[in-house]
Amino acid sequence: MASDSPLTDRPLPVAPRPRACDKVRVRFRKGGDLRFVSHRDLMKCFERILRRARLPIHVTQGFHPLPRMVFAMSLGLGIVGLDEVLELEFSEPIEPDDVRQRLIEQMPPGLEILSVRHIAVSCSAQVRRAGYRVTVPTDQIADLPRRIEALLAAKECWIERTRPAPRRLDLRPFLSELRLNDGRLEMLLWVTPNGAARPGEVLGLLGLGDLAQSGVPLERHLLEIHDE
Question: Do 113 and 49 contact (CB within 8 A), yes or no?
Answer without folding.
Answer: no
